[in-house]
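Subject: Interface between my chains keeps coming out wrong

I've been trying for a while to get a sensible model of this assembly. When I model each chain on its own everything looks fine, but I need the whole thing in one frame so I can look at the contacts. Pasting all components below, labels as-is. Any help appreciated, I'm running out of ideas.
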Amino acid sequence: MTTCVLEPCIFELSRAGAQGVSLPQDEEDAPSVAQWLPQEMLRDASPRLPEVSQLEAMRHFLRLSQLNHCIDKDFYPLGSCTMKYNPKVCDLYGALEGLTRQHPMTPNHLSQGSLQVMYTLQQYLADITGFDAVSLQPAAGAQGELVGMMMVKAYFESIGQSHRTEVIIPDSAHGTNPASAAMCGFKVVEIKSGKNGLIDLDKLKAALSDKTTAVMLTNPSTVGLFEKDILEVSRLVHEAGALLYYDGANLNAVMGQAKPASMGFDVMHINTHKTFATPHGGGGPGCGPVAVTKRLAPFLPVPVAEFDGEKYFLDYERPQSIGKVKAFYGNFEMMARALLYILAYGAEGLAQVSRDAVLNANYLRACLKGDYQVAFDQICKHEFILTNAKQKAFDSHLNTMALVKRLMDYGYHPPTVYFPLIVPEAMMIEPTETESKATLDQFIAAMKAIAEECRNNPQLVLEAPHTTPVQRVDEVAAARNPDLNYFKPSQSG
Amino acid sequence: MTTCVLEPCIFELSRAGAQGVSLPQDEEDAPSVAQWLPQEMLRDASPRLPEVSQLEAMRHFLRLSQLNHCIDKDFYPLGSCTMKYNPKVCDLYGALEGLTRQHPMTPNHLSQGSLQVMYTLQQYLADITGFDAVSLQPAAGAQGELVGMMMVKAYFESIGQSHRTEVIIPDSAHGTNPASAAMCGFKVVEIKSGKNGLIDLDKLKAALSDKTTAVMLTNPSTVGLFEKDILEVSRLVHEAGALLYYDGANLNAVMGQAKPASMGFDVMHINTHKTFATPHGGGGPGCGPVAVTKRLAPFLPVPVAEFDGEKYFLDYERPQSIGKVKAFYGNFEMMARALLYILAYGAEGLAQVSRDAVLNANYLRACLKGDYQVAFDQICKHEFILTNAKQKAFDSHLNTMALVKRLMDYGYHPPTVYFPLIVPEAMMIEPTETESKATLDQFIAAMKAIAEECRNNPQLVLEAPHTTPVQRVDEVAAARNPDLNYFKPSQSG
Amino acid sequence: MQNFLPHTDAERQAMLSVIGVEHIDALFEDIPASLREGITYHSLPTKGLSEPELQDAISRWAARNQGKEMACFLGGGAYNRFIPSAIHNLAARSEFYTAYTPYQPEIAQGTLQVTYEFQTMICELTGMDVANASVYDGASAVTEAALMALRLTKKKRILVARTLHPDYRQVLKTYLKGLSMVELVEFEPADARCFAASDERVACVILQVPDYLGSVENPIPIRDFCKASGALMVVSADPVSLGLLKAPGDYGADIVTGDIQPLGNHLSYGGPYGGYIACKSQYLRQLPGRLVGRTTDKNGTVCYTLTLQTREQHIRREKATSNICTNQALNVLKATVYLTLLGPSGLKRVAEASVRQAHTLAERLLTMPGLRRYQPEKPFFNEFVIQLPGPVQPILRQMEQRGILAGIDLARFYPEIENGLLVTCTELTTSEQIDRYVTAMKVALQAAQGAELPKGSMEAACS
Amino acid sequence: MQNFLPHTDAERQAMLSVIGVEHIDALFEDIPASLREGITYHSLPTKGLSEPELQDAISRWAARNQGKEMACFLGGGAYNRFIPSAIHNLAARSEFYTAYTPYQPEIAQGTLQVTYEFQTMICELTGMDVANASVYDGASAVTEAALMALRLTKKKRILVARTLHPDYRQVLKTYLKGLSMVELVEFEPADARCFAASDERVACVILQVPDYLGSVENPIPIRDFCKASGALMVVSADPVSLGLLKAPGDYGADIVTGDIQPLGNHLSYGGPYGGYIACKSQYLRQLPGRLVGRTTDKNGTVCYTLTLQTREQHIRREKATSNICTNQALNVLKATVYLTLLGPSGLKRVAEASVRQAHTLAERLLTMPGLRRYQPEKPFFNEFVIQLPGPVQPILRQMEQRGILAGIDLARFYPEIENGLLVTCTELTTSEQIDRYVTAMKVALQAAQGAELPKGSMEAACS
Ligand SMILES: Cc1ncc(COP(=O)(O)O)c(C=O)c1O
Ligand SMILES: Cc1ncc(COP(=O)(O)O)c(C=O)c1O
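Reply #2:
Try treating it as a single job with all components included. I did that and got this:
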């Protein structure tokens, strides 16, 4: 039997003179470009890019691809990430040269298709969130947060309250929240969550002051529960003269049920690559539109797509705008895909998306709570948290990481682990609405089987995974001696 | 560890009410179609087609796909099949609605693009083969053979020689040759090959008579050797008043070296899915153009693409035509892909294709002959034959099938086995020109390792494959109790 | 220019020395010098085109076709149907697209299982017991069915409906020409006399349902005739129609054939499509083409394999059931994905929408003076024949100028139907297109009445 | 309508009973009733569109854009380059397209290894030691580099060339606004005085090579200034140019950034593209974004994993090097395949052809009376600035009518360049397009001289 050899690095396949694509020949009498460029700015040595035939390239990347898990292959119960299925009709985008070959500096009157997409998506997102205005420019959720915080800052400057410098963030928040606030120059004030993983109103009150610019919340929170006191929170925040930011990563739970603007939020971002199914592509690209109330609208990044009743155009005339956060207008393809997604579902369909997402999560919770400790055992929204509490009783080494690595042997991607930080040994499970009951039942069976293994054969679990292309990757060595570049494998770091 | 469970049959995944694609809703007041159709012709029960969500369908077929070997993943040394790499630029076809959405009955003046493709390909194939006229209509090589034989028949009828009823075919020929001749009503006269797997001139002379319509040859022959006496063969055949048919499956060996028409052939087919790289798609589709001399041109199937100096058109005015063998005009997409392929290489490139194909075959032969018996050990063309002669000395069970099954464990597709029939235990290896030296060297290493295993550990080989999704499929049971239909698993047969 | 060839010259030289020759020409010395001398491909470009140039070339071909911008009322065996996007994504996967015929089941379970699923789906649609892995197209399918019938019944007479697709009839004729003594007789289904008395000489009767002209006729008289005559009943059927219409097996067919193009395959100017053949299990051994069977492997895992290969040319040579080798596997994949995505209700809906649009258009056209339906008493599916008051071609040219491909001129195929135009609707036909069709037809008829046509359109008519 | 939701109503009910509630609404009772009451999405269609309707919608959007039919002389940070077809095939594979961030290395080696290969290629192009797995785009890349420099030097002054892409400068400004005391100073690279004396306050100097106006300037004075001032030298560079031009690391850059759009990524009206950042290894700990490292697994197999994650927000929260989480992984894949297919000679050829076409066009334009090049003494790469004798917009409208996107009007970005037009060529620019450009420009200039423009084009000019 051959041992499992993974694919060599592309540079190992390189052979001088090989080429993967044929380019036009220079004409016989083509002038040398050296005459036009300063000699000292020309390369002496070629970059060591790979030289391989097209077939060698295809095989290399095809084989690599097969080493990946993906949502089109199997379930991805990744809490907070909303790994839902992306309808393939969106892939038509790539075949339409009218969209793919449109240069961003093409004048408005020749870009009406693209502008229509942007304008319509702005309208729809405003409607879905309940806000007044939308910018599609941010490239992802984190950049949306940053834009939101920048607008908050600009707003307070515009009303002469530059003394406000603090942002209050619960300890359950995603890491991007404090990071974005910090990038904006704010001081982050972390508050401890209450017993249910929700806001502790007393702690909030204590933290609020005339230094507070904003409170950043995720709702449903990162433990998968709706902030039942949200209206009270909003009242308190606004009473303190601060604004309320909505991290839209969990929007998938509440469509058709509640609009963030109605909850009392002032500004939010949306992760189209979560809620509206633009695919993750192995880590990106995404699109992180921000939506705001009228009060904050003047501060939106430029340009914004507008419609004058006849034509769509890009509006740069926004004197109070915070400026730009991306070259051009944002990740346009993701906008087109998100718009297709929204059109595919319609208003009723989106409401059903959230209902099914919540149904699936509660179904899993109900079926798994016999075998695993549920961190907050009550009706949840689109996700919930398990821990290893029951399993570690059998063997103290049975931590969350061990449990989820074992899940890979059953063909599943592990849940999100060790997040949120407030639940020790968290396994956060978000099934999304696109998973069928059959898939959920199989997943339940796998989880139960693992629980059983923990009881009877903990070693099997502790040594997992057993069937993956590689097993128990040495991450410590990777960090200690970073090898990040094939030609310079050792970095001082 | 989980056991390897393959994918369930799609019908097992079916759930009443699920659907994989959303279709337009009927309008509220849409009339029932029952009024327009005879009641007794309407279905009583629905067909049991699967009912699954789009995600379930995607996962099912994606998982199935990953169970396949393919040329884009690894080497396919399949003799006679010319499994070369298909340049991905040809895939652009699928994105161009001007080509994909053209209905075959669109009038000529609105189909100039398609007709230009057909006309140009006809011209190029005529040039490459040296013939005068080409029909692109046959769907594959076998249908090309049939068309060729039909034309031969029509020709002899046209000159009043209907008494000719025999076709001479060497015993080394591909099974389609006798089958095609038989479908055409001819009597097949098989002649034994000479010692080198080539035509035995004496046997040929003996077989030729005034009953002979045609001799069907493959050149290079199916043992991978050029018929060195081809000019003499041609003289003999024509002296007997018969015609000479060229099975073009091995055209990949002689481009830029010799044209079949110059060799003395009168008619041939081309497998574009071999020589010109339209991909195999798991068994098809292909395209099997026929090329003929002036003498046979009047008999070509209708229509033929023509050009009047201004416009392309389909010519049906061919009174002596054999008729049609396919609805419409053939596998048009394959024609477009073959034309792109020819354009990608140009005249010099095609000559290099054959040089490299032959180089690769001889390189493998030279490197493997120490470990395996080469059936005809001399300079070969694009393929050559090994046998198990050396290996069976170690263990009489080490037949060709065992050897090649073991090759799968090394990641390779087996060579063509037990063909041609004239070489017992044949393994026919055709590397094609798109394989790099590195790939060939790895394959050689694998073959040598297997030779070593045969010596030292024959059991390992005899029980192979060990790493494939399934192993040693029970083909006897499959044939004895044919289960060809999920809902009717047992057939009387 | 490297094209897609991987070797560098240095590698070539290294390989030659391993072989033991100095120059590549040494590998071609067995080819007579007279053949090699002065060989050129003068009509081809000397050097290959680069990839940007190839991209450009194919885009220009596409741009020179006008079909896709027009409203398409063409049918006649090739249908402009909705193709779910997921099909392309799956069919483009290298694992399906660049795999060879699944002769080695250990590493071809993907293609094999898909084919088994396809066979089952075709049986469900047709009401048959077994189906093969495809033949070339609907024409070769019905032809192979006729050949099956000849072998099975050992009789020599084939009755074929004149309403079978004209191309299919031509293919049948071409194939049968080779076989001595076989008699091919065309009949007019409307002519009840054909089947009044049984005929022991008949091997099979071939009909198409719905027929080429769109009509759905009662097949029972033919079924009864076949029963009485010991002939096989062969039905050619658009698989989409079988989402709504009775499975031919349910009204007595012995062999059912057709083309799977409408199941998720591109129009592509006529191909590649794919033929299906399904039959009752007693005819299995005479079924041509590949068959996939379900079995188990040495570990007991359920798996699939090509089976009953002794019917095929690579084993049986001149005694094989057919010469077919390469088939239409990728089209089969697309059809299987299509049927999986649509399911029974989706397929039915597609069929219904097509029927509904065709009847809507027909009804509106038939209110126009001068237009008649051919054989108006017959029920029809999604196609129908309109008889125009004058020649068809000038009307088609007029309609084209309004962006409409109005139908197929029946003059070549059915000269007996005066000024006949075959008009097709599918589920993609929109109400707006129907409106445009009706308006354009009015204008075209008026122009035609206005005696002389403008010069330009007459010229176009001759091309 | 099922859309893409898998459950049937029966299944929903069954699941509710397992949960122990009767109605789905019971799962939403924790949401205040006041929020739930009367909620509607009035601007959305009530029901989802079917797939045929969606296919139609997206085709209509595409048809309303005119860019692809026109000869494109637009550049300015987004380039109309040749994209090898193999890229699409690979990027469309579900295993790449629908995978999540590779947090679990056991089942993400594909994405991880591709990223490692990308990091290496970027280092080869830039002459740096390490590169990250991407940031959002060229603008955020240069901005993150500036933030790195602030952290590394603990200084507060940033000098940025006025010839850095105007959007990038705007983004930089927007990001820096939040940070107190940081001073952003624009300089004019042509102005030698800027760097005459060293300045200890400077954290970094940011320049673009070739710059936004296409010029290739001598970076040595700035390099010397940085050395003397203890400032970091940050260079933003089009990666295609680095196939021909010296790696910035070779002339002293500390951090190199840019946008990978030109490496096989679609124009797509501005995104998604992808930013790269590469730096010397001593700055590694301040590099933002994901990094992939090579290591081994428990069996000793070479493998890849995300590493040094303590720099990132999910570990370090407000102390992270950046807030970035989702990045541009799929664009990275495309760039990696692009560079693999082209190799060093292909990339060089693409760069050379672009330079050659730009110079051909420039030379021909500069023979035309009234046209001048801005700063004609400077060498340029594949872009250059032409100063027109009059306003740019009417000329652009005229050129558009001849199917040409003639360039970027610099009025908004560089009002100091009177009537400036940035013109770009790439390897896809054909000689025929250059001829058309020259002819159209002649006509347009004549029309402009003829005082009044025709009415239609004036209207268009205002849109
Ligand atoms: C709760 C939460 N907030 C913010 C983000 C950041 O979004 P993005 O990755 O799109 O930048 C995420 C993404 O994982 C998240 O889960
Ligand atoms: C020598 C030879 N002849 C004929 C054929 C038949 O060609 P096709 O499969 O295209 O019908 C083949 C294909 O395998 C072959 O190898």
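Reply #3:
Confirming on my end. The CA atoms of residues 133 and 292 of chain B lie 5 Å apart.
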